[in-house]
Specification:
Elements: E1 4-10, H1 18-28, E2 34-40, H2 47-53, E3 56-61, E4 75-76, H3 78-83, E5 88-92, E6 95-99, H4 102-113, E7 121-124, H5 128-139, E8 144-147, H6 160-164, E9 168-171, E10 197-200, H7 209-216, E11 220-222, H8 225-239
Parallel strand pairs: 1-2, 1-3, 4-6, 7-8, 7-9, 9-10, 10-11
Antiparallel strand pairs: 3-5, 5-6
Helix pairs in contact: 4-5, 4-8
């Protein structure tokens, strides 16, 4: 039986969920010829060297390369092209094809937690994960504003009033991820209420400082773990088309 190599590329990814998740899946399915490794790339330009050294069946893409990886791929799925970010690569017939399963995972999370009054959103951050979030919100006709550095609306001028008018807040930045668990975005938490839904895409730690402070204001909160599980399952289906 052919050996199949999978993995995750990113930067500072030793904490990653993916290796454990897929190795457990391989064990359950008795796939002794499947292997999953972490590849810390210091620069996206190291990608071609990596794939020249080993024959991969599939790769996941993490921060900060979800957008930067695109020029290195032969083609994109229709969804990945619309989103403008890739977190899953399929290797087949000597070609690379990029997909986005973050959108699928986020949409599943939103379906579970969204209430009728969650009619507008603030997206914190503007990286690859934020692009998947925007795609889903547009699909569901939920208007949103982006809060990010170098934007008109940023973490220096975001007001309590603005926060109070958007009952859905999606935190897409890596701020507060393990091991920097004390870090938290500059954010007017006093604008939150029990009507707010906070989705923090970080999953390690389970309760970020951002989630803790939001919960203290009465907001409903959830982390990125379920989203990660859902996107991983979608990824597995792509790799086993």
């Amino acid at each position: 039986m052919e050996t199949k190599h999978f993995g995750l590329i990113g930067k500072n990814i030793s904490y990653s969920f993916s290796k454990k998740y897929f190795e457990e899946k391989f064990q359950k399915l008795l796939l002794k010829n499947h292997f999953y490794e972490l590849y810390n790339l210091q620069n996206i330009n190291d990608f071609n060297e990596l794939i020249s050294k080993k024959k991969f069946a599939g790769l996941n893409v993490s921060i900060p390369y979800k957008i930067e990886i695109i020029p290195f791929l032969d083609e994109l799925s229709e969804e990945a092209e619309k989103i403008g970010a890739v977190n899953c690569i399929l290797f087949t017939d000597g070609k690379t094809k990029g997909f986005n399963t973050d959108a699928f995972g986020f949409e599943k999370t939103l379906q579970i937690h969204k209430k009728n009054h969650h009619q507008s959103a603030l997206i914190l951050g503007n990286g690859g994960a934020a692009k998947a979030v925007k795609y889903v919100l547009e699909k569901q006709n939920i208007p949103y504003k982006t809060v990010a550095r170098n934007h008109n609306l940023n973490f220096e001028n975001l007001t309590k009033q603005e926060v109070s008018e958007h009952f859905l807040i999606v935190q897409t930045t890596p701020v507060g991820t393990f091991p920097d668990v004390e870090n938290v975005l500059k954010f007017p938490f006093d604008g939150l209420s029990d009507k707010h839904l906070i989705i923090d895409l970080i999953y390690n730690p389970a309760y970020t400082e951002f989630i803790k402070r939001a919960a203290n204001r009465g907001a409903k909160t959830t982390n990125g773990y379920y989203m990660l599980e859902q996107q991983a399952e979608k990824t597995w289906k792509i790799w086993n088309f």
